[in-house]
From TrEMBL:
InterPro entries named in the record: Cellulose_deg_GH3, Fn3-like, GH, Glyco_hydro_3_AS, Glyco_hydro_3_C, Glyco_hydro_3_C_sf, Glyco_hydro_3_N, Glyco_hydro_3_N_sf
Pfam annotation, one family: Fn3-like
Example of a GO MF term: hydrolase activity
Domain Fibronectin type III-like: 681-750
PROSITE patterns per record: GLYCOSYL_HYDROL_F3
SMART domains noted in UniProt: Fn3_like
Protein name: Glycoside hydrolase family 3 N-terminal domain-containing protein
Keyword Isomerase: no
Species in which this protein is naturally found: Kribbella ginsengisoli
Assigned keywords, A-Z: Carbohydrate metabolism, Glycosidase, Hydrolase
Length: 784
């Protein structure tokens, strides 16, 4: 027995965390250090191994494949210690009592089986709330994007973190900081939108909120995952290094610089042939050396063996483990395959340096010290508190986010409904009657409960029809069609209901699922951007009745609405608004809620319009008209959202007409509510670099502020723009701030920018790094 083990110096609270971690590392054998790099997913034993592969409902890619060969008992997996326990709460529907008991059981196995008694860290999913049975389901990340409200996102994440911490969870696998590049990708719903600054600001807010509760946030997926060819999940990524540096990586860099996220997850993607998990440039040179990241890198589920089985850059899973470890992965999730005995054998044979094992284990142990897991007072029983995963406070917050995220595309002639006082409302469409259509693929009811249909939803989720019936009398419901499939047998009843009604609410869109089990979600990519199934035909049949039709799209991605917009009596977009989504949408339709959501992605005009994001240089924009027969103008632009009141943005003033390459200026505008109701407006500042070394986007969101105004109220919004905010990767790929003219554009969307001015940047070209200014501070002055 070692001196370090006898004295347990690493439990001494008077020592710095780094010293304690180092003392524990020195006390460990090689096998014990390797044990800290692995994980065990006991809940994965519940996979439907008795069913054929095509009938199984996976919650992770190729889960059935990795389960089919049997699993190592937790006691055996913990023989030398264990890094992580995977999804104790989130794999099967457990009551609070059952969840606590199972967590304590697994902790005890790990502690009792290992020599040093080092606890395992517990991680769970938390993309739309704590992914466990009976927990509040918040709106999806794309809906957070539509709020343009970092403070609100931070409050939500703090509430999620508190629930997870009470359940004894140490790490949450969120937020997703992938920037949308192709709307057909199934995981668009999990993102915060198509603009790096919006994604970075809201993602950083989420990190701050979650970590304020003592739960480590995990940035994913590092990096390039969202840029796969044709939007196909796990597809190859062919973007250039400049696009990676200027569009994909800044979101992660911001969340590390401004929010100090504790963990980063590897991407499944290969970038120009090199899988991210094997890329030491990404995980060591950029993440560690340039950005100074000191936390842990965890693999996406089975990303380590994928290096062998899917990417084929390694011959065996053991070779894949050595490759991933050398590149910079510290912990293999969700089960130990490549980070097991193979690493020990390669160290003992001299093929692998033990320093690589020490490097990763040191990072894991430091986090365990920082989390209090190695304190003398820590016990499994003491790690779990009082749990109410669907409190009234949670639901009120979920409703607030949902209401702020609904985007009014066009009030038309029918919205709000209170001005029509309709006698009969026909509510039609699959998304009006199925509460699952309000939730994303990582919400427990859509993620796990399809395996357990007898358990119901686990929470109360009113449908849109239920919620609308509470606000407006005379509502009737007809489904019309399912989200997916070609069954048109419900068309006749839906059309008849429409003909007898004064107004129709047609609620169509997505049902989120996993790996082909839905129209949106992980592994549910789309061929084009037409509404799924026969829903477009259903809407067309309703429009042909002559009754005014308000179309509500509840979806995880934007769909092409060009054939609907000009014929509908109103048009509303909601991105999976969560369990309170019915009340939020009903409130917007009735007029009780004044909508203020803004589009974090554009709404295409045509079903084949790709790529559709607003970040386009001149040759990819409307300025290229006549060069291609494909139209580049969206139906509704990034940042757009209408309201039941009106706003005016005017009087742009710049504090300087000229600044140095290390200077700054303040852009100030006045915002007035010119309508008759209190409402929210999102003021947006864009920059255009008139001449640059490389082709740059014509507009780039550089600052925003959501403001609430009473009728007639005026506020002054001031953006402090540092010259660093103009930095980009130049011809030699160094990030530079250079001299030249900048257009400053301010308005209410990327296409509605009435305020324009110019500022000249002068001086020597500066090369900037991780210490540059990444945020544009905004001050809102009342009584302007």
């Amino acid at each position: 027995m070692s001196k370090h083990f006898e004295n347990r110096e690493w439990r001494d609270l008077s020592l710095p965390a780094e010293k304690r971690a180092e003392l524990l590392l020195q006390a460990m054998t090689l096998a014990e250090k390797v044990g800290q790099l692995g994980s065990r997913w006991v809940g994965n034993d519940m996979a439907e191994t008795e069913k054929p592969a095509e009938e199984q409902l996976n919650v992770a890619p190729m889960q059935d494949v990795f389960t089919a060969g049997g699993s190592v008992p937790l006691a055996e997996a913990s023989r030398h210690g264990l890094g992580h326990l995977t999804r104790v709460w989130g794999s099967v529907p457990l009551s609070v009592y059952e969840g606590k008991a199972e967590l304590l059981r697994q902790h005890r196995v790990v502690l009792d089986r290992s020599r040093l008694g080092v606890p395992a860290l517990v991680h769970e999913e938390c993309l739309t709330g704590f992914t466990t049975y009976g927990a509040t389901v918040y709106p999806t990340a794309l809906a957070w994007g539509a709020t343009f409200d970092p403070e609100l996102v931070e409050r939500m994440a703090a509430a999620i973190g508190r629930d997870m911490a009470a359940a004894g969870v140490h790490q949450g696998l969120s937020p997703v900081l992938d920037v949308v590049r192709d709307y057909r990708w199934g995981r668009v719903e999990e993102t915060l939108g198509e603009d790096p600054y919006l994604v970075g600001m809201l993602g950083s807010a989420y990190v701050r909120g979650l970590q304020s509760a003592g739960v480590i946030a995990t940035l994913k997926h590092f990096a390039g995952y969202s840029a796969s060819r044709a939007g196909r999940n796990h597809g190859p990524v062919s973007i250039g290094r400049r696009e990676l540096l200027d569009v994909i990586l800044p979101t992660f860099e911001m969340a590390l610089a401004s929010a100090e996220a504790g963990s980063v997850m590897t991407s499944y993607a290969d970038l120009d042939g090199l899988p991210a998990g094997a890329d030491s440039w990404l995980f060591t040179q950029v993440l560690r050396d340039e950005w100074g990241f000191a936390g842990t890198v965890v693999s996406d589920y089975w990303a380590v063996p994928f290096l062998a089985s899917m990417h084929r850059v390694a011959a065996t899973a053991e070779d894949a483990g050595a490759l991933a470890l050398a590149a910079g992965t510290d912990v293999e999730l969700p089960d130990t395959i490549g980070f097991g005995a193979g690493l020990i054998e390669r160290v003992e044979s001299g093929e692998l340096s033990e320093e690589l094992i020490d490097r990763a284990a040191r990072r894991v142990l430091l986090q365990k010290v920082q989390l209090g897991l190695l304190d003398p007072s820590w016990t499994p029983e003491g790690s779990v508190g009082s749990c109410d995963f669907d409190s009234a406070e949670n639901r009120a917050l979920a409703l607030e986010i949902a209401e702020r995220s609904v985007v009014l595309l066009d009030a038309g002639t029918a919205l709000p409904l209170d001005r029509l006082a309709p006698r009969r409302v026909a509510v039609v469409g699959p998304c009006a009657g199925d509460p699952r259509t309000f939730m994303g693929c990582y919400a427990f009811p859509n993620h796990v409960l399809p395996r357990y249909p007898e358990r119901g939803m686990g929470i109360s989720v009113p449908t849109l029809f239920d919620a609308l019936s509470n606000e407006i009398t005379g509502c009737v419901y007809e489904q019309g069609s399912a989200v997916l499939g070609d069954d048109r047998s419900g068309f006749a009843a839906a059309v008849e209901a429409a003909r007898e009604a004064d107004v129709v609410i047609a609620c169509v869109g997505d049902l989120s699922g996993l790996f082909g089990q839905g129209s949106s979600g992980e592994g549910c990519d789309a061929e084009d951007l037409r509404l799924p199934g026969v829903q477009a035909e259903l809407v067309d049949a309703l429009l042909e009745t002559g009754t005014p039709v308000v179309v509500v799209v509840v979806s995880g991605r934007p769909y092409a609405l060009g054939e609907i917009a000009g014929r509908a009596a109103g048009l509303v977009q909601a991105f999976f608004p969560g369990q309170e989504g019915g009340a939020a949408i009903a409130g917007v339709l009735s007029g009780r809620v004044v909508p203020g959501g803004k589009l974090p992605v554009q709404i295409p005009r045509h079903v084949g319009g790709q790529p559709g994001t607003y970040l386009q240089p001149a040759l990819g924009s409307v300025e290229s008209a006549g060069i291609s027969g494909l139209e580049a103008v969206p139906l509704y632009p990034f940042g757009y959202g209408s309201s039941y009141t009106t706003f005016e943005v005017s009087g742009l003033e710049l504090s300087a007409e000229e600044i140095a390459t290390d200077g700054s200026f303040v852009a100030t505008v006045k915002v007035r509510n010119t309508g008759e109701r209190r409402g929210d407006e999102v003021v947006q500042l864009y920059l255009h670099d008139v001449v640059a070394q490389v082709a740059r986007p014509l507009k780039l969101l550089t600052g925003f502020a959501r403001v609430s105004l009473d009728p007639g109220e005026v506020v002054e919004v001031a953006f402090e723009v540092d010259a660093d905010r103009t930095a980009y990767s130049g011809a030699d790929l160094r990030r530079i701030v250079e001299a030249g003219e900048l257009e400053v554009l301010v308005g209410t969307s990327s296409a509605d920018l009435p305020c324009r001015a110019a500022v000249r940047v002068v001086g020597e070209t500066r090369v900037v790094g991780h210490d540059r200014t990444m945020v544009t501070p905004v001050v809102v002055r009342r009584n302007a």
